[in-house]
């Protein structure tokens, strides 16, 4: 009973920020500053939504964000799984050294590579376009490490050898053996990548110079004006941006949890 009580309290504490966002999105900024705080829903949500749509090209920015998030997720799942399967089940010269170098890149903060990455995008002529967000994020060290650990423990070498003897080449073994066994891990990595891409703010703020290509997080940041902030409008925008993530998580929640728990057990 004590454990259940503690878990209930922890769950309520985790849900409180979402509840407070809903409260602020349905009230006015004056209500937010009221003391004692107002913890009941208001009737201003429709007005706040209209204010967001009037001040931000919301649906255009959401469309850009969907393109970036879906494209990035698809590329990460393909390239990371391909590299992870190679590291896990095939031996080649320098494999261990290359994997250590790959892991070492996880120690570098993303901000450290912003300048050379921007120079690279400028050399390609991609500054201001969505390609500058998609291509650099097409593979990452975390995804390769995560899937490599999964492949090592879920696929026996005998199974790979049997598929090879049956006439499957590398891509055949990858398609018919590796991918079916890694569905939970791929679901976890897919949701993790999609959420990270959807919420990314730092790199899009730097590289997106074309107003027509702004992603949702960058577009919503314009609601924070220098002379006074309408917090009810800001929270409404944040709430509207959160809805697609909630839908994605609800649809893939079972696979996400299964992948996370299996990775913890196998790792």
TrEMBL record:
Q: What membrane topology does the UniProt entry give?
A: Multi-pass membrane protein
Ranges for the ABC transmembrane type-1 domain?
A: 62-252
Family stated for the protein in its record: Belongs to the binding-protein-dependent transport system permease family.
Report the locations given in the UniProt record. Answer: Cell membrane
Q: Which UniProt keywords apply?
A: Cell membrane, Membrane, Transmembrane, Transmembrane helix, Transport
Q: Which InterPro entries match?
A: MetI-like (IPR000515), MetI-like_sf (IPR035906)
Residues making up the signal peptide according to the UniProt record? none
What species is given as this protein's source?
Kribbella sancticallisti
Major place of residence: membrane
Which regions span the lipid bilayer?
Answer: 66-85, 97-118, 124-147, 185-206, 231-253
Protein name as annotated: Carbohydrate ABC transporter permease
């Amino acid at each position: 009973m004590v454990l259940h009580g503690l878990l209930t309290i922890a769950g309520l504490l985790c849900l409180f920020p979402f509840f407070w966002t809903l409260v602020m999105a349905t009230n006015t900024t004056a209500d937010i500053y009221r003391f004692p705080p107002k913890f009941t829903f208001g009737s201003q949500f429709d007005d706040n939504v209209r204010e967001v749509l009037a001040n931000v090209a919301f649906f255009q920015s959401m469309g850009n964000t969907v393109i970036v998030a879906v494209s990035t997720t698809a590329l990460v799942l393909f390239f990371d799984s391909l590299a992870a399967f190679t590291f896990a089940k095939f031996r080649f010269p320098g494999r261990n050294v290359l994997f250590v170098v790959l892991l070492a890149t996880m120690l570098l903060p993303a901000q450290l590579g912003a300048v050379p990455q921007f120079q690279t995008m400028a050399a390609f002529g991609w500054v201001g376009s969505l390609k500058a967000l998609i291509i650099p994020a097409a593979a990452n060290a975390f995804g390769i490490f995560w899937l490599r650990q999964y492949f090592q423990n879920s696929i026996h070498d005998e199974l790979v050898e049997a598929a090879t003897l049956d006439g499957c080449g590398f891509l055949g073994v990858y398609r018919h053996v590796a991918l079916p066994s890694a569905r939970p891990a791929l679901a976890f990595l897919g949701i993790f990548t999609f959420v990270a891409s959807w919420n990314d703010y730092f790199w899009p703020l730097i590289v997106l110079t074309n107003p027509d290509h702004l992603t949702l997080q960058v577009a919503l940041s314009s609601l924070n004006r220098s002379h006074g902030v309408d917090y009810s409008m800001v929270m409404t925008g944040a709430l509207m941006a959160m809805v697609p993530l909630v839908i994605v998580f609800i649809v893939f929640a079972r696979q996400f949890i299964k992948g996370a728990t299996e990775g913890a057990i196998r790792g």
